[in-house]
Amino acid sequence: MAVAVAVPPATPTIVPRRGQFLRSMPTKAKIGGAMLAVFLLIAIIGPAIAPYDPSATNPNAFSAVGPTAAHLLGTTSTGQDILSQLLVGLRSSIVLGVLTATIATVLSVASGVTAGFLGGVADEGLSLLMNVFVVLPALPLLIVLLGYLPNSGDLPTAIVLSALGWSWGARVIRAQTLTLRSRDFIGAARETGERTWRIVVFEILPNEVSLIAANFVGTFLYAILTSVALAFIGVANFSTWNLGVMLYWAQLANAFSIGDWWWYVPPGLAAALLGTSLVLLNFGLDELGNPRLRGASGRKNRRRRAWRPTDPTPVERAELVR
Predict the structure, then answer these.
(1) Closest by alpha carbon to 114, among 204, 29, 46, 228?
(2) Rounded Cα–Cα distance for residues 33 and 28 (Å)
(3) In tens digits, what is the pLDDT along the chain, a chain of 322 residues?
(4) What is the 3-state secondary structure (H, E, C) of 117-178?
(5) Please, are residues 85 and 249 in contact by the beta-carbon 8 Å criterion?
(6) Going along the chain, which residue ranges are E strands?
(7) What is the pTM of this model?
(8) Ordered DSSP codes for 46-57
(9) Under DSSP, is residue 107 helix (H, G, I), strand (E, B) or coil?
(10) Pick from 101, 102, 115, 103: which is nearest to 204 by CA?
(11) Smallest Cα–Cα separation from 223: which of 283, 169, 284?
(12) Nearest to 262 by CA among 103, 87, 74
């Protein structure tokens, strides 16, 4: 007589979860974070280790000079040391990016959470404001507004950049808050008499940490690239050095056409690598906070085949019993 005996699937070996958070981070987030850490370290110690005054000129210089032992990245046509300009300018660019990202993220979180959680008139009014800022032509407004703020420092520039860049993040956070507001744990917190601010701080915001972090990194990237582009076309604060100002003086001296690569390649490469680190970190944070992306990545990294609820039922093996 043949009896069908169900063979249970093999039980995977349970591995101790040591350093679970670090291992759960996507590879792209680790690479981007490491690259960004290097740039932050250079921004902190750069001005202290700069070999020369970045604005000091040489009256005997008549043309740009390539890399030498005295000037590792060469000099400009006026004898200014490019390495010193890069070390000092990198700090200014990163400080501007951090200021812009901080202001814009605070505005995005405050408006997005308020609109999504309260609903009603508050949601309609804040959503209208978000939509207005989304459709505003950012680049022409930036050129006009920053044109009235010459040599005003990083803070006014950061305020203008954040005022025109907060609305996208606010819309995403509002949508996430609308989803969280209808969850059971929020309803349970309301039934127990929790105050609104406690629900927002201890229930809503912790579930949006990855989204807020990704918004911060994205705004950081937007501020860096926008400031470099504006400085390149001549709309910037030229009283301080940054990556865009270096590129502006390089193109003004026709370094691109005459082949003085050491003048424009270092700041351009630094801006590109900084942007790459932020993009990788942003993608990694998005994957870390998105269960679908995180699950797909985890299945690829496992050597064993992942068992899914949609897989067929395990095949039964018939054994002959006599």
Answers:
(1) 204
(2) 8
(3) 445 544 444 444 444 444 555 566 788 889 999 999 999 999 999 999 999 999 998 888 788 899 999 999 999 989 999 999 999 999 999 999 999 999 999 999 999 999 999 888 999 999 999 999 988 888 888 888 877 776 667 888 888 899 888 999 999 999 999 999 988 888 888 888 888 889 999 989 988 988 899 899 999 999 999 989 888 888 877 888 999 999 999 999 899 888 899 999 999 999 999 999 999 998 888 777 665 555 555 555 544 444 444 545 444 444 444 4
(4) HHCHHHHHHHHHHHHHHHHCCHHHHHHHHHHCCCCCCHHHHHHHHHHCCCHHHHHHHHHHHH
(5) no
(6) 2-5, 317-320
(7) 0.79
(8) HHHH-SS-TT--
(9) helix
(10) 115
(11) 169
(12) 74
CB 90 within 8 A of CB 212: no
DSSP 203: I
**Amino acid letter at 68?**
T
Rounded Cα distance between 64 and 257, Å, is 13
Helix, strand, coil in percent for the chain, rounding step 5: 65, 5, 30
Pair 281, 224: CB distance under 8 Å:
no
* Phi/psi at 149 (5° precision): -125, 55
Name residues whose C-beta falls within 8 Å of residue 133's C-beta, 6 or more positions apart in sequence.
163, 164, 166, 167
If one counts every other C-beta atom within 10 angstroms of the C-beta of residue 257, the result is: 8
Are 288 and 280 contacting, i.e. CB atoms less than 8 angstroms apart?
Answer: no
What is the Cα–Cα distance from 57 to 59, expressed in whole angstroms? 6
